[in-house]
Hints:
six-stranded parallel sheet
Amino acid sequence: LSKNSKKGGELQSYALVMKVFHMIDVLLLPILMFRPVSGFLYQQASTKKARTTKSLVLFMSSSSSSESTASSPVSTTTVIKVLALHGSGGNGEEFRQKLQPVRDYMLAQQHPVELNIHAPTAPFVKEGSSDGYCWWTMEAGARSFTAKEYIGFQESSQLVLENMHDDCDLVVAHSQGAILMAALLGLNVITQHNPRVGYILNGVAWPNPYTKELSSLQDVGDTTIRTLFLMGQADKINPMESAKQVRQSFLSRGADYCDVTTHEHTGGHSFPARDDASLQVIADWILKGISS
């Protein structure tokens, strides 16, 4: 009698399971055309109750996973082309490597940006260096913000202009490279290639031979020059006062001509590629330039 009772209980449990599957079949058939799948589940149930339960759980889990994947947003990466100009004593590849933390930081943003960096090497060998180059030479003892002449400036200018194609989105310039870019802006010779994101000038100094030109910046049509000045408070190479003089020449032209942003960091002359606060400022500035 106990065996019959146990068998009867199992039959009742089996009948209950079958009713549940029938209810699922009836409710979901008009929406999901569920019958072929539920038929498969019926077959599993008739073989073994435990396998039926497992099949149902696997089906529901797979369905939930598919819905989650379908609803997940797809992140797209914006690619911008960057012209990078190194400082005196450096070279293109070295500067490109120094900017790697900036590239990594931009790719980690909520809206990732890939910096496609092209970094040419200056044409003149730095005196006393085997792998260092410069954009011009000067008379003995002169500094870029005191020199009367930049020897080789025309050749370097031509090299930069040849690399500033119409699809250049951003210029990142450091030290002598930044001084070169400031002089070119003063000379008003890059207006047709004005990058849409703008210019990042780190450790810039006053280009003394082009004082007149930079002191009276010319209009570039309807284009606004976006500039981010990075200044190291402990810079012993190019004093901040000289960088602020360059910035003032941009500010004096008015907001319609120059959109100027300044970030002072606690470091020295080097590009602040490993300073978190500076990286955030650079990222925000680039993203704003892309969206504007």
